[in-house]
Design goal:
Helix content: 40-55%
Number of helices: 13
Distance between the termini: 45 Å
Order of helices and strands: EHEHEHEEHEEHEEHHEHHHHHH
């Protein structure tokens, strides 16, 4: 349901910020306050309430009543953040879209700077850095070491660079967050951008889809967001139950994409295999051991989707990942200890 479908929107809308919301009442006011500080006059804030059980919807309705830039869509059933993003994107009218999460922190200055850069280029999207805070171990303000290395190799000390995927395919294996990208809306509509229906890793498909089909992209060494992983396990990142196995469904969405695009598969499937192995390692650290046997079976099924030529190509670029695959196939229970 579109709660305020009658609102008029500017034909000069610059930025659409799309936020899925589920039981986020403790975040709504602070998020709205920070998003409102982005120094772009023509912006819209599209909230999609995914059948929250708290008063998130009421809070957003109150914001929408006093601020015409706030738009609310309501799911009558809980569909997951991916479907909520798709719902919000369907009505986005800005030149650019930023998909954000209700419980993360936005760098308002970086948003403005990246949009200004996009305006001066033909880039289909911009991808930026992030900061990660894990409350459980006290780590604060760190980008993943591997992600940092990818950016450093691409930028070579520059603040930003307009490039093509063929020159920086490692970017495909960058952590698949939705909120460190700003995407040109016309491009997103051209490729029919969509997020998966899975409860976890719903952004994997959109990450790969947006990069694979790009003609050019803007890599920016600007922290666009701070992602907070709470110690209490309330964040999707902390899910350890059977839902975590839905990650394999999200990966299958990308497998299906490659099946439809053999030219892209020939060029970039080895990067996807690398990405999969790293994701399997992450799943293993999160998953409740009651689901370990199912996990091992799904890992093996996924590995065997690669053919011999693809494995050879993988070994040339990612020898350490190829060695991991050898070890997994030889002794999965030893590699992923119960």
């Amino acid at each position: 349901m579109n709660w305020n479908a009658g609102k008029t929107r500017s034909s000069d809308m610059k930025l659409s910020i799309i936020v899925p919301v589920y039981n986020a009442s403790n975040c709504i006011e602070a998020l709205y306050s920070s998003l409102s500080q982005i120094k772009i006059d023509e912006k819209e804030l599209i909230f999609v309430d995914d059948c929250s059980q708290d008063n998130s919807r009421a809070l957003i309705e109150a914001l929408a009543e006093r601020d015409p830039s706030v738009h609310l869509h309501v799911h009558e059933n809980n569909c997951g953040a991916g479907i909520a993003r798709n719902t919000g994107f369907a009505t986005a009218s800005g030149d650019y879209c930023l998909f954000f999460d209700a419980d993360d922190l936005i760098n308002t200055q970086a948003v403005k700077e990246i949009v200004d850069l996009l305006d001066t280029t033909s880039a289909d999207l911009a991808i930026a850095t992030y900061e990660l805070t894990k409350e459980a171990d006290g780590s604060n303000g760190r980008i993943g070491k591997r992600d940092r290395g990818i950016f450093d190799r691409i930028l070579q000390g520059e603040d930003h660079k307009l490039t093509k995927l063929a020159a920086c395919a490692d970017l495909l294996t960058f952590t698949n967050y939705p909120w460190n990208k700003i995407i040109r809306t016309s491009y997103a509509r051209k490729i029919n951008l969509w997020y998966s229906a899975t409860k976890v890793q719903n952004d994997v498909h959109a990450h790969w889809q947006s990069l694979l089909f790009s003609s050019s992209l803007l890599v920016c060494d600007k922290v666009l967001a701070k992602h907070i992983v709470p110690a209490n396990g309330s964040n999707i990142t902390n899910i350890s139950c059977e839902k975590r196995l839905e990650s394999f469904k999200a990966l299958q969405d990308v497998e299906d994409l490659f099946s439809r695009e053999p030219d892209l598969r020939a060029r970039y499937y080895r990067d996807f295999v690398c990405f999969k192995i790293m994701l399997f390692n992450f799943i293993n650290t999160k998953l409740n051991r009651n689901y370990f046997q199912q996990f091992i079976e799904k890992v093996n099924e996924s590995i065997y989707l690669s053919n011999f030529q693809e494995f050879v190509a993988l070994r040339e670029k990612y020898p350490e990942i190829a060695n991991d695959i050898y070890s997994i196939l030889a002794n999965p229970y030893g590699f992923y200890k119960v």
